[in-house]
Amino acid sequence: MKTNLKELLEFPTPFTYKVMGLAKPELVDLVIEVVQRHAPGDYTPQVKPSSKGNYHSVSVTIKATHIEQVETLYEELGKIEIVRMVL
């Protein structure tokens, strides 16, 4: 049974993105810059290093207002050069 994300969410809703990228100092700023363009707000991202320290994960929760916003942010966050994965 395949379920569409749109069918599972009622908007507005909190929505958390977990962005994994290279452990570079600019990663958090790049992620927040993209998030601010599509969901302006005051964010406090959580950053966790990988076990070897080569990667960082940045978690940020937005107040999503519609499915297109959620999908656009997945796409735009994935375009950041040092990002390897967006969950």
Automatic annotation (TrEMBL):
One of its GO terms (cellular component) is cytosol. InterPro entries: UPF0250_YbeD-like, YbeD-like_sf. HAMAP family: UPF0250. Belongs to the UPF0250 family. This is UPF0250 protein M979_0381. The lineage of its organism: Bacteria, Pseudomonadati, Pseudomonadota, Gammaproteobacteria, Enterobacterales.
